[in-house]
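The aim of this short unit is practical: by the end, you should be able to scan a pair of folded records and say something sensible about each. We start with the first protein, listed as its amino acid sequence and then its structure tokens.
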Amino acid sequence: MDTIAAVNRRPGALWRFLQFPVTRLVLAVASIALAIALTQWFGGALPPPFVHLLSAAAATAVYIANVRGIERRELVEFRLDGAGRETALGLLIGAALFSVTMAILCLCGAWTLTGVNSIGVMGYPLVSALAAGVSEEILFRGVFFRIVEESLGSWAALALSAALFGLVHAPNPGATAVSTVAIALEAGILLAAGYMCTRRLWLVMALHMAWNFTEGGIFGTSVSGTEAHGLLAIEFHGPELLTGGAFGPEASLVAVAVCMIAGATFLARAHRTNRIVRPFWRRS
């Protein structure tokens, strides 16, 4: 299969402008961000879970409109063949990676279980994780990584998208320089590498969702600085470099190590299957 979802180029100055990579990047990010903002504005009277789901649906619809209307191509990143398998694999990997992180932290004496809550508390974290997995993967992997990769190649897109992913989490509650770098290294690299392996969004959306839900909905720890109430009640002990501090275990050096190993595995597979895109000046 082609590693790049090729834009269907149209003749004329207007189409050259609209289909220029920078133009497509700006239009897609701006329109998706606007759709999410408007959904949250007009849905303010609705319960938060519904607003989250509507925002994810709006982001998906606007992304599809950009691909169909401006890039004029097949929506290969949402192709249905194999979608179930990739989604299941992403859910398994995301849940396993966070569970392994917590298991290592437990062995290090970094947390203790203080209680178990009602299963009903898992509902909101589940919806929040679903919305974040869909919206953020569309923006960062479907738009930013993919369009940058078209011109600058996989490695530049990987570095730039990972750095940006870390930076957008910098204003979050409890964020520090360490948490910003941690998010870039663990999630930014892992999710971009996962996208490179499949060239579709199913796996990375599911992985992102499962990580967030396992983190907040099951273990009840802060998700990127946002306090969560999950099935388990946990108390952390020890230095912030180990526990992640107020930002949550995502800022832990253990999470960074676990996710970077998984990211490296994805990158190795992408290399073996010839899914590394060279920059435009090195293509024949």
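Turning to the second protein, read its sequence before its tokens, just as you did above.
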Amino acid sequence: MAMYVVGHKIPDSDSICGALAIAYLKNQIGEEAIPTRLGDVSPETQFILDKFGFTAPELKMSYAGEEVYIVDHTEKTQAPDDIDEATVVGVVDHHKLGDLTTSTPLECWIRPVGCSNTIVKMMYDFYNVDIPPAYAGIMMCAILSDTVIFKSPTCTTADIKCVEALAEIAGIEDYKALGMEMFKVKSAVQGTPTRDLVMRDFKDFDMHGNLVGIGQLEVIDLSVFDEIKADLAADIIKLKEEGKRHSVMLLLTDIMKEGSLMLIASDNETIIADAYGVTVENNEVWLDGVLSRKKQVVPPLQDGFANA
């Protein structure tokens, strides 16, 4: 029986490219695997897939009775809704451990690096499997995306070395220029429905019994939000109510200024303010130096809910 390789809900480039790259690796070592996805492909991810000649993995929402290899998370809130009825056979992730559990032993590749695809590169090295140029290209782009072209505090020496190696395999001479092309695609927000923007890179977290949603939009210049910021703020209020969430936050991240404007809708704004040691005004706050949801936003907020 083939295993399905799938990332998180509302997949980003790491989830999509990781699913494709792991499925290829598994097939090369005699383990039948099919890449899938749990949502629509983002504009950035579509740019990457088009650049290297890939089609998006199959959209598959149900996995009951199937073998599943999870990429880029270990959180039930981000997994298929019927994950408890599936058999999780493996995990590749670079986040904190979540609440996914298994009844049987599984393969785990978890490392404190900037991107799951950095770990996937390590897997190819471990199994001594050659990476085709196109796969090297999408893996490289996923790392550039997750590490914000090495600007993110999550970036490690391993991420940089993997990008350099993958760029050589893919035949990309100026990978930083390609990274900027990707972020220009991310910055093109005009004309996109407000809810689509809010959900473009959105994750739910269970924080000590409270459902908290955190979205992020990474752009080259925050001025692209000048005309739509009020609409975004209004929509996260609606999203909070619709999903019975305690809080919803949207990070508007300026990769050039290296900081994020956080828009907030919350039942208790004080928890958020205390978590980051800031004063929230008009349901928003600028977080200087904050680029990473994984490392700089989620951990202090979880601590904040633990102490509330």
